Sequence to fold (145 residues):
Amino acid sequence: MIVAGKPLPDALDEAMVHAVVHGFYEEIRHDDLLGPIFNGAIAPDAWPNHLAKMCAFWSSTLLRTDRYEGRPLSPHLAIPGLDERHFRRWLTLFRKTVDRLCPPEVAELFMDRALRIAHSFRLSIALHRGEDTLQVRPILWDSLR
Fold:
């Protein structure tokens, strides 16, 4: 499969998507900043369904499988106070996960997509709140440590 003019690395498959999603959300659930938000929004017995949905999302996003059905922005619009620090932490944990689990070329694909999604969500949230979207600057990979 060719994405952005390059063939997808062989290492990127459903098993890797599953490992990244499950590893990432394990980090999220225990994070001091993001854990309370996710654990407050997702009941303990709903986590398996959420993880399956996120696996479908990332499979559709990176492997072009068309498995995901839904609107990922809507739940984020309903979270009061969601701001750059939350997205920055989300991206930092995501980078930590993909760097740990993926070869560099696969980690780069995940992060490229995650950074774009985060920026799009931040712009949409600002617009939804009536804020100045020109003040929303992209979060860059190199700033995530």
Observations:
- The chain has one domain: 11-143.
- The chain has six helices and two strands.
- The longest strand covers residues 2-3.
